[in-house]
Amino acid sequence: MSDQDQPDRDDRVLAGEYTLGLLSAEDAAAFEARMVREPELRALYAQWAEDFAGLTDDITPQAPPARVWQQIEAGLFGTRERGSWLRRLTLWGGGIAAAAVLVLAVFLPDLVERGPVPPVDPPYVAQIAAEDGSLVVQAVYDDETGTLFVDREAGGAAPGRALELWLIAGEDAPVSLGVMPQDAQAVLRVADDLRGRVAGAVLAISDEPEGGSPTRAPTGDVLAVGPVQES
Questions:
Q1: Quick one: 89 and 144 in the same domain?
Q2: pLDDT value of position 208
Q3: How much is the pTM?
Q4: H or E element: which one contains 67?
């Protein structure tokens, strides 16, 4: 990826490190939260992911012999202080760490499972928030794929209860989009017949029994609302 025409080199490097899985869990979560709000950052991540994915297009995955691991480790780290290879990668400079991860990616492309990531350049965003800030959920939506990425920045369900997400389009009755997962970040799939109704609608979160509303309407308090807007 070229430095030319990049708006912020630090963000470009950060996006590359995120794509390679070099960030700590805390830094990765902060980066993902920024991607919800910043289309430019999502574009940087998408470009890095495309570039790295292209490196292995013509390579058939192979399980390397034990001696290959030994040679890689000996070349990168020597024979002393043989601790966790992940720790050693973290301690080395960004360039060497990135090179090592790329080598591993060639041999073990499925080694690291990434968490949910927001759609790239989604046309719609929403902040679903309580008035007192006790519950805040950022959402981005891609109407072409029906992908709704949610990032719960504050708050959560009460013990023994669940948070359910609702779509309110115009004067229509609320339609459930599903129970919010326990994980802070998640991807929800919007049904085909609802995709075109999200734009300009309102998203709301209600307090419900575990498993969600027993009816087709909210039964508990509406805790947070937010309009869906163009990004």
A1: no
A2: 93
A3: 0.52
A4: helix 66-77
